[in-house]
């Protein structure tokens, strides 16, 4: 995950501060020296680092901090606040046009992920803002760019407007006209990129901008390219005047400097971040939450939002009622496993929990083969067997094993896991476990499967 190394180094510096109790000015200067080195190693721009350290130092060496009962915590609080300010203070939303359609023009260098993240953004806006999006293929130069957009559009069931290798300016205008005619209130223009910014690229983008007057111009930048991404952002902003940034590949082993520098350099906010390869892995960028994760404080709000998206509210309510009556079935057990799987890898979840070492779980994920095997076994049972596993004798197990392509030992293992869960639900139904496991909360049962 991006910022992993930075987070470790910052926490090491703060650990030294915590161990000293009362702080002297020299202690803070030493800590700021380590913070400076950590930020530079994370590929944050030199000027950005210098200004950040000066601001934090000026606040941290103040009388209120040095004479505080918890000076180390005060310093960390200041760093947290300034990290938020560095990345934009608060979340910036997509501007919606008062006269549909809203037109979002995506720009960026080749390989940044414009096409994929354009589709991701369309899917996000449809789900969370009730928009009816249209994707427009304006990249006529990159081989298979149009086919790629059509493929991701089909996967998300989002229409794609294309005119082959016609003039990109004409394609953009016709796409907007098509959207107006067919009731699409959101148009996302997937424009061409280059390996570097040149006059031909800039001229074409300017012509498209003039022709359709986009509501927003969003620059897609690859977090893995570090300071190069920031330089590209500055150049595109000077040439076109961008409205915001989509930062991609933030789940990779990136140093993260782009996220910390792009707002300071361009003055434009990061609006979305790509957090994985799947087409639903895009989320609004929250500077405060990201700062909290960098400092090892977790990101519980995002974890809750992911859980709410993964767990169907009606099913969660039904699950709570069953749990309170100790009437969970194997079908319920399977539903819980699949919903937890949809939340992503264990390392992603761990990174959002305060104090959790996400690095220890790097690469860990829900085992798809286990889920698939569980599904096959449960679906090979009759409804009666799923509702009452105690009737599963030797002959029934052999039949289920044959039908699911598994062995009887796999079925016995599943039944033992289910029995363990039932033992736990007995405690919950008696009120012996807290609400976070589903004891009293309406949505608690949804998290129980974790």
Mean pLDDT, all residues = 81
- Helical percentage: 55-70%
What general form does the structure show?
flat
Structural class of the helix and strand makeup?
A: alpha/beta
How many helix segments?
Answer: 21
In terms of DSSP E residues, the strand content is: 5-15%
Strand order of the largest sheet: 3-2-4-1-5-6-7-8
Order of helices and strands: HHHHHEHEHEHEHEHEHEEHHHHHHHHHH
Uncertain parts: 433-450
User: How many extended strands?
Assistant: 8
CA radius of gyration is 26 Å
Distance between the termini: 22 Å
Largest sheet: 8 strands, mixed
Q: Could you explain how this protein is built, in words?
A:
By secondary structure, the chain is an alpha/beta fold. It has 21 helices and 8 strands. The protein has helices spanning 4-18, 25-41, 46-60, 63-66, 71-87, 114-129, 145-156, 168-182, 199-212, 227-240, 257-266, 287-294, 300-310, 313-324, 330-341, 346-350, 368-379, 383-387, 394-404, 408-429, 444-448; strands spanning 102-107, 133-137, 160-161, 186-190, 216-222, 244-248, 270-274, 282-284. The chain has an 8-stranded mixed β-sheet, sandwiched between helices. Helix 15 (330-341) runs antiparallel to helix 17 and helix 17 crosses helix 19 (394-404). The protein is flat. It starts with a helix and ends with a helix.
């Amino acid at each position: 995950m991006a910022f992993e190394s930075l987070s470790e180094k910052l926490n090491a510096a703060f650990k030294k501060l915590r161990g000293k109790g009362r702080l002297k000015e020299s202690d803070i200067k030493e800590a700021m020296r380590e913070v400076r080195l950590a930020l530079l190693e994370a590929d944050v721009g030199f000027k950005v680092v210098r200004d950040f350290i000066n601001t934090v130092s000026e606040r941290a060496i103040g009388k209120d901090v040095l004479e505080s009962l918890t000076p180390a915590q005060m310093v960390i609080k200041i760093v947290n606040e300034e990290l938020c300010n560095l990345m934009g203070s608060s979340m910036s939303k997509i501007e919606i046009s008062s006269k549909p359609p809203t037109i979002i023009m995506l720009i960026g260098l080749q390989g940044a992920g414009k096409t994929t993240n354009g589709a991701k953004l369309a899917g996000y806006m449809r789900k969370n803002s009730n928009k009816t999006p249209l994707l427009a293929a304006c990249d006529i130069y990159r081989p298979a760019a149009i086919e790629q957009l059509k493929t991701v559009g089909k996967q998300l069931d989002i229409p794609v407007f294309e005119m082959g290798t016609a003039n990109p300016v004409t394609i953009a205008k016709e796409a907007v006209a098509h959207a107006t005619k067919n009731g699409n209130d959101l148009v996302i223009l997937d424009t061409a990129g280059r390996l570097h910014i040149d006059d031909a690229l800039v001229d074409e983008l300017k012509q498209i901008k003039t022709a359709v007057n986009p509501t927003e111009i969003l620059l897609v930048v690859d977090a893995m390219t570090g300071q190069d991404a920031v330089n590209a952002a500055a150049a595109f902003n000077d040439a076109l005047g961008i409205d915001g940034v989509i930062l991609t590949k933030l789940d990779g082993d990136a140093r993260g400097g782009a996220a910390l520098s792009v707002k300071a350099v361009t003055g434009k906010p990061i609006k979305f971040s790509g957090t994985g390869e799947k087409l639903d892995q895009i989320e609004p960028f929250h500077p405060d939450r990201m700062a909290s994760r960098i400092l090892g404080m977790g990101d519980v709000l995002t974890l809750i939002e992911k859980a709410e998206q993964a767990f169907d509210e009606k099913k969660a309510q039904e699950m709570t009622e069953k749990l309170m009556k100790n009437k969970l079935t194997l079908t319920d057990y399977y539903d819980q496993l699949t919903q937890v799987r949809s939340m992503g890898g264990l390392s992603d979840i761990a990174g959002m929990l305060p104090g959790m070492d996400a690095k220890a779980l790097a690469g860990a994920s829900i085992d798809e083969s286990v889920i698939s095997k569980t599904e096959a076994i449960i679906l090979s049972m009759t409804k009666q067997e799923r509702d009452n596993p105690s009737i599963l004798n030797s002959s029934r197990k052999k039949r289920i094993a044959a039908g699911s392509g598994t062995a009887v030992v796999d079925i016995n293992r599943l039944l033992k896991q289910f029995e363990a869960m039932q033992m736990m639900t007995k405690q919950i139904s008696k009120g012996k476990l807290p609400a976070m496991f589903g004891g009293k909360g309406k949505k608690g049962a949804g998290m129980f499967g974790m």
